[in-house]
Write the structure tokens for this entry.
Amino acid sequence: MSSDVDRGDRDLHAELESPSAGQRGVPVDAICVGCGRTRVKRASLAEMDQSPAVDPATLKATDLTSFKHVCHPCGSATWWNPVAVLSGLLESERGD
């Protein structure tokens, strides 16, 4: 499994399972442009300007665009900037 599932004291698996991460999409670590909070979010490939045919495991954060998602501390839907594709979480969901 990739080392991207270990981000210091954060439990990325728990963040991914949280309803605030979203229900479907590629797990990414992203920063809210409103408050600067970094959290695991799910976003579809289309939301991040990628073809649905792309294998998410081959993507890098620099390939992705910002996407809108709810930020609970901000109290609204806001823009999130992907900083990492969490391929380790993606692999664990796929059973790789």
Summary: The mean pLDDT is 89. Helices lie at 12-17, 87-94. The chain has one domain: 12-87.
